[in-house]
Amino acid sequence: MIKYTHQYLVKLEEMLAESDYFLRYEKGNFKSGYCLLRDQKIMIVNKFFTTEGKINVLLEILKNVTLDTTKFSEKSKKLYEELQQEEVSSNS
Length: 92
What we know:
Elements: H1 6-17, E1 22-26, E2 34-37, E3 42-46, H2 51-64, H3 74-91
Helix pairs in contact: 1-2, 1-3
């Protein structure tokens, strides 16, 4: 279940920190609110977004990339699996 709180944002950030991708908050003119550099595995999110906006953008990015979960902690694996299940149920 997605919660639009600062703690939930921190959980997402911690999960991404364990992945191969780097997450950066920058200012910029991203039409979608983020820029994804796949070759360099960098996610850049508009730093002026609210907590809810940042969470929505990170969830959108996670729909478009596949993360290697072999290095994930149990907590991060569980969160990633929950997000994958939620995506499947929302597509049904």
